[in-house]
Amino acid sequence: MKFKALVNTVLQEPIAWLKRMMFERDYRTFLALRMKLGGIPRFTECRAKVYDWDLVIPDAASFLTSYGEIFVEQIYKIRCADESPVILDLGANIGLSVLYLKRLYPKARITAYEADPRIFACLEQNITGNGYRDVVLVNKAVWHENAVLQFSQEGGDGGRVAWDGERGTVAVQSQDIREIMEGRTIDLLKMDIEGAEDVVLPACREYLPAVRTIFIEYHSRVDECQQLDKVISLLSGTGFRLQLQSVFCSPSPLAERRVHSGYDLQLNIFGWREDGR
């Protein structure tokens, strides 16, 4: 029986691949993009035609990773009775999340924030340049206050508020998350702000009951106290049912702890309300 199970497993993998090739357009597109862009050096600007979109891509590697997560795995997929859901995209990068959500809900009312001025220029070209003139694009960092912050430009999808003493940063304007969320009922709050969630999420706690679904990419900085327990407690305490998926972690952390871009753990946190609100 063990041998039969092994044979079945081996046979199932190519069958599953063939099914995806036959029935999943986004999967086929992803494979074609990987063949076309996979050999381009990091942080080399390029362009690609994806469906009817002409896209400016500042970094092929991070683009391919994001495309796989957003369009193939559909990590931002939501079900909403309203054909024009209100979506707040914090950390929109070059706009793949916006394009996916506008394809899912063409009448969606999206406000997208991106702090990095270089990446924001790509975001504008990829959204407004492809005809989406009803999306509000804001070139600011999201923070717990209105201020001027030092920002570290990674060149792809890893730009973030600079750490203490970091050199080679640029000044960016921030906007208080409370100003952004006040008075709004939000169908999806997407927060991918490279570690700033530790500061921003507690600041907007009183507004979370007006959020129907939430996505947070949680980052655990290797040399700082972990905040995961506080994030989970805050979200569950404001009525969310949660699921977590790993983005990056060490395969054997008790023996060897790996670090990626200064983080020893990254998780996708999904939250929704079981009462249907």
Q: Could you walk me through the main structural features you see in this protein, from its secondary elements to its overall organization?
A:
It is a single chain. The protein has 2 domains: 1-73, no CATH class; 78-272, Rossmann fold, CATH 3.40.50.150. The protein has 8 helices and 13 strands. The protein has helices at residues 2-23, 25-37, 60-72, 96-104, 117-127, 177-181, 197-203, 228-237, and strands at residues 46-50, 53-57, 86-90, 109-113, 136-138, 141-143, 148-152, 160-161, 170-176, 186-191, 211-221, 241-248, 263-272. β7 and β8 (160-161) form a beta hairpin. α2 packs antiparallel against α3. It starts with a helix and ends in a 5-residue tail after the last strand.
What keyword list fits this structure?
single chain, 277 residues, alpha/beta, Rossmann fold, four-stranded mixed beta sheet, 32% helix, 27% strand
> Which runs of at least 5 residues are low in confidence (pLDDT < 50)?
none
Supply the CATH class of the largest domain.
Answer: Alpha Beta
> What average pLDDT do the residues reach?
93
- SSE string, helices as H and strands as E: HHEEHEHEHEEEEEHEHEHEE
The Cα radius of gyration reads 20 Å
Summarize the amount of helix as a percent range: 25-40%
Q: Please tally the β strands and state the result.
A: 13
The backbone outline, from C-alpha atoms, is: globular
- Please identify the structural class as seen in this structure: alpha/beta
* Count of separate DSSP helical elements: 8
**Overall number of structural domains:** 2
Strand content: 25-35%
Question: Strand sequence of the main sheet, in spatial order?
Answer: 5-4-3-10-11-13-12
Distance between the termini: 48 Å
Do you know the CATH topology of the largest domain? Rossmann fold
Sheet with most strands:
7 strands, mixed
Within CATH, the superfamily of the largest domain carries the name Vaccinia Virus protein VP39
Please tell me the CATH architecture of the largest domain by its name.
Answer: 3-Layer(aba) Sandwich
